[in-house]
Amino acid sequence: MSHELTWLLVAIPAVSAAILLLGGKATNKWGHLLGTAASLASFVCGVLLFVQMQGLHDEERSETVRLFEWFTVGNVKVDFTLLIDPLSILFVLLITGVGSLIHIYSIGYMEHDVRRRRFFAYLNLFVAAMLLLVLAADYLLVFVGWEGVGLASYLLIGFWQHKTSAAVAAKKAFVVNRVGDIGLSLAVMSMWGLFGSSAFASVNAGAEGMSSTWATLVGLMLLLAACGKSAQVPLQSWLLDAMEGPTPVSALIHAATMVTAGVYLVVRSHAIFEMSETASTAVVIVGTVTALAGAIIGTAKDDIKKALAGSTMSQIGYMMLAAGLGPAGYVFAIFHLITHGFFKANMFLGAGSVMHGMNDDVNMRHYGALRIPMKITFVTFAFGYLAILGIPPFAGFFSKDKIIEAAFAHNPVIGLCALLGAGITAFYMTRVMLMTFMGKKRWADDVHPHESPKVMTIPLIILAALSLGGGALYFAGHWIEHWLEPVVGVEEEHPPLPAIAMTAITLAVVAVGIVIAVAKYRRDIPREAPAGSPLTVLARRDLFGDALNEAVLMRPGQYLTRTLVWLDNRGVDGLVNGLAALFGGLSGRLRRFQTGFVRSYALSMVFGAAFVVVALLAVRLS
Amino acid sequence: MKIGWLTLLLLLPLVGALGTMAVPKAKALLSKQVALGFSLVTLVLTAIVAVGYHQNGAEKYNETHTWIKAFGANYALGLDGVGIILVVLTALLTPIVIIASWNDADGGRWSSKSFFAWILVLEALSIGVFSATDVFLFYVLFEATLIPMYFLIGGFGGPQRSYAAVKFLLYSLLGGLLMLASVVGLYVLSARAGDPSYLLTDLIKLDISQNTERWLFLGFFFAFAVKAPMVPFHTWLPDAAGEATPGTSVLLVGILDKIGTFGMIRFCLGLFPEASKWATPVVLVLALISVLYGALVAIGQTDIKRLIAYTSISHFGFIVMGIFALTSQGLTGSTLYMFNHGLSTAALFLVAGYLISRRGSARIADYGGVEKVAPVLAGTFLFAGLSSLALPGLSPFISEFMVIAGTFSNHKVIAVIAVFGIVLAALYILLMYQRTMTGPVREGIEKLKDLNKREILAIVPLVVLIIGLGIFPKPIVDIIKPAVESTMQRVGVTDKAPEIPVTEGQK
Questions:
Q1: If DSSP codes are grouped into helix, strand and coil, which group holds residue B66?
Q2: Where does this protein reside within or beyond the cell (chain B) (predicted)?
Q3: Which of A20, A231, A379, B124 could pair with B14 as two cysteines, CB 3.0-4.6 Å apart?
Q4: What b-and-e string marks burial along B418-457, b requiring 16 or more CB atoms within 10 Å of the CB?
């Protein structure tokens, strides 16, 4: 397939979404099939492009496809241009590959939902927007995909919008992301001012000429945008609430693809971050803090989806950390992003399969012993579990290990934090495993857990296989390093200890995490959550993130709007009306206008016209 | 005498208005059809003019006839990039409003045919306002637009409509009076310099002393600031839009208020460039206040129509900001914004109107769960809302982005604060959507009917344009470009060159 046809990748799911949305009930019968086919078609296109790229030399693999001029204003020209290069093609494969599996899974998961067609329309809309995001060759065009995935996320979090909680969560996600959009907007505006363009090529070419102040500012603005989309501290609060959406959505959008867009943005903007030590350090700090915060939140959640959401935050924190390390970390950020896409989608879909069999109950305290009735779900979930822990030879071992190594090479404190995070991850994931699949059954008598249909388990099996084998991208001759080098560069940094020792230490820490979790959750787990220590409460309440937002932003904001509304009604309006009344007894005249106002209006028009003429004549006479 | 194209555009709706009134009262349907027919023919003619303008330039459309020789007043019409955009917007929104308001004037105080006739009169006068190239003619038409709008608000709408109509009228007249003083002042200057003339082409040649220029500028600016409306002269708008029928609100906010921002470009910048630059800091701050204040007050509204009115105050803040940023991005963005805002606000007001007409209440608290019973209505409402909050990919995004970027290049602090408006916009739209459309189905909503074919028909062109111009805005940006360039030249400002120019080869 010629790279000229890259636009098809975006167009196919977009057209399918339009057909499903506009087609109405007529498309109910086959809507889910069309949606799945569209996603698969994009995947096939992606594979063809990827295969073709293999035959090319490094420098030929980056192709821009200019579709048309978007607009020219002043000295800025923005083209509707796509960029297909080694970085974007990996994303294309991840998005359409995992995306297609999740489409297939959703056929089963959403079978009994009367609005299934619309669900697939939104999924297609998401795929189209996400592909535009990663294929755009201009930051302003990235913005379109960026907000497009935000819209799809909004629609899908709020898919069951008859539930107020879902509608509120959807709105929150959109609004918090808009805070991030402030960053993206300002970054693009700065680029226009600096380079007269926001095309990647221009920005990359001009970045070296940036002053360090500008590089820092633009870098921080991009980081703000990334924090919004990727649920990084301080804009993390929406992701946990986003679990209100149907589980396939959590797997696709809020684990495997969309939430990682921030990492993509940082890596894509490497030219800018390399010009500013401050900005890249900020990325590292944000990533590290989020890696720990997410992991801590994950330890206390009884809701299986929220435990996994905390984990997603944390894992993206790792990617962000790696992206902040510069050329030493870019490749591993992307590598971990991909393996995480596999194993986290795997586990979310596994959680969905569990919920499917448990009457949509998400509370792990009501689970237990599900390994028996749900064998496939259990085994596949276990693959994801081993992968996220970083047990060799599962995919996560290769990707996470490299990040921890690079972190140590960069700064021992950051390295220790990353190591600690790995331990906590082992703890909370073991906890999820034990509470869900092990121990004794705790479910109520009217619940009859059962394995999910094939249409759901087959995607699980494929993703489990990828969770196991995904590491091949690296251990097969460091393939991904060579692949991405022409785009982001690679730099070898040497950790303070030999790699093998690092690996041993990491595995030891992971083992400690597992042992603590087993010691704690091996015994009977109460169906009702115990009060918990202050630390547990802190984690359960998302480290008081929401409380902080409420106290600092929401409440003052509400007071402000209320005060302004009151002022506007009484103050501004009252003042102007009062003044008018003062001048001409307005109120009396108002009443006169209201009775028989047609005639008096006509009269006043006549007077007005006469006044104009008289005024002119008077001036002329003088 | 040959009738010029623009005169034809102006006369056609007027004839239509007469034709509509001539239909006997008993044949209400026929009168609506006549009105719709005339508005559609006007639209076709406008399209022809727009295409001709795009291909052959403005020359062909200039008309000048002496009107009142003693005053130097001429009947002079012409087009530039800003004018043509707004003429097209007017010609486009009028038939849409007629279709959407098909039954809204039935059983009102006056016969429904007068409602449609007034709409056509308003269309004619608006086209005149946007194409007048003589200040006196502009002033007369500017004031004359108040008449149809006054009757549209005062004759058809909510219980407080008379109060709202009079308030609208008094505010506008007060603004107009100040403009009149400046208009007279211009005459004095022009007469002193030789033969008096109100033609724009003659007026820009005048040599005006700094002080005089500033006073004259203020007269015009005040009138336009009331019309646009800018905080603190805005309070007439929520009352008017809250009481009027949705169709009237569309015409009021979508077209009539644009006269304010249009006038700022053509008259404030065009005639008083020095004074415009002098006033820039204050105007930008006022615009910024409008952006944030309008949005914050919108968030706190309990009435759907008033909420939308306040969002427009915020949007007009952006438009004014872009104009006085004095950059090509700002000016292009503002002009485009005027057009896009017309589309998005029309969609928002009309769908809100559909909703309100079904339930008989504009209170947000009376709704809930509408999505479940009327998904098409909810879907179009969300779409209109998203376009109002300038979702990237839809046409308002490009204009809003250009406005802020244009401001950013000259006034960083103002632009950075203004960007927070995009968060507030998400809040006012999505809060309203959440409260009305989602959640459990509220009492009184269960049997709400979804949109019918006529209602959908009125919305479809707006949706198509909002998406189409979001993806491919180039034609309209290109039409605007020459007008922006000449305005920039007239004011004597240039864009800042990029700090680190990247050569074509590197791109």
A1: strand
A2: Endomembrane system; Membrane
A3: B124
A4: bbebbbbbbbbbbbbbbbbbbbebbeebeebebbeeebee
Over residues B421-471, the pLDDT tens digits come to 999 999 999 999 999 999 999 988 888 899 999 999 999 999 999 999 999
3-state secondary structure of A227: helix
With beta carbons less than 8 A apart as the criterion, state whether A64 and A83 touch.
yes
Crossing angle (nearest 10°) for helices A454-469 and A375-389: 30
**Whether residue A431 is found in the same domain as residue A526:** yes
Q: What is the pLDDT of residues B342-391, one digit of tens each?
A: 999 999 999 999 999 999 899 999 999 999 999 999 999 999 999 999 99
CA distance A492 to A467: 26
| Closest of B293, B306, B284 to residue A567, by C-alpha | B293
- Radius of gyration for chain A, computed over Cα atoms and rounded to the nearest angstrom: 28
Contact B96, B40 (CB under 8 A): no
Tens of pLDDT along B199-254?
Answer: 988 898 888 899 999 999 999 999 999 998 898 889 899 999 999 999 999 999 99
Contact (Cβ atoms closer than 8 angstroms) between residue A495 and residue A411: no
Yes or no, beta carbons of A564 and B235 under 8 Å apart: no
A580 and A495 inside one domain:
no
Strands, E, within A221-364: which ranges? Answer: none
| Mean of pLDDT over chain A | 88
Length of chain B: 507
For residue A519, is it within any domain?
Answer: yes
CA dihedral B198, B199, B204, B205 (to 10 degrees): -90
- Give the C-alpha separation, B240 to B328, whole Å: 33
Asked if pLDDT for residue A610 goes beyond 80, the answer is: no
Look at B474 and A69 and tell me if their CB atoms are within 8 Å. Answer: yes
Measured CA to CA, the distance from residue A507 to residue A486 in angstroms comes to 32
In a domain, A281, yes or no: no
For the purposes of burial, counting CB atoms within 10 Å of the CB of B399, is it exposed (0-12), middle (13-18) or buried (19 or more)?
buried
**Contact across the interface for B473 and A186, Cβ inside 8 Å:** no
How many domains in chain A? 3
Whether A193 and B71 lie within 8 Å, measured CB to CB: no
In angstroms, the CA A11 to CA A132 distance is 9
Residue B68, beta-bridge partner list: B73
CB contacts of A154 in chain B (<8 Å) are 430
In a domain, A283, yes or no: no
Per-residue pLDDT at B446: 87
| Measured distance CA(A34)–CA(A16) in Å, rounded | 7
**Are residues A362 and A459 located together in one domain of the fold?**
yes
Q: Closest partner residue to A590 among B150, B166, B372, by Cβ?
A: B166
Distance from CA of A203 to the nearest CA of B (A): 8
Residue B503: is its pLDDT beyond 80? Answer: no
pLDDT (0 to 100) of residue B370 = 93
| Per-residue pLDDT reduced to its tens digit, B76-88 | 999 999 999 999 9
Beta bridge partner(s), residue A66: A81
Chain A residues 528-557 with a CB less than 8 Å from chain B: none
Rounded CA-CA distance A262/A319 in Å is: 10
Q: For position A615, what pLDDT does the model report?
A: 56
CA distances from A98 to A8, A134, A239, A248, B190 (A): 18, 15, 20, 11, 73
Give a yes or no: residue A146 inside a domain.
Answer: yes
A-B contacts (CB, under 8 Å): 205
Domain of residue A340, residue span: 298-530
Same domain for A249 and A132 = yes
Interior angle at CA B400, CA B310 and CA B249, nearest 5: 35
Question: Cα–Cα distances in Å, from A410 out to A17, A318, A324, B16?
Answer: 45, 14, 10, 77
Q: Are residues A392 and A502 in the same domain?
A: yes
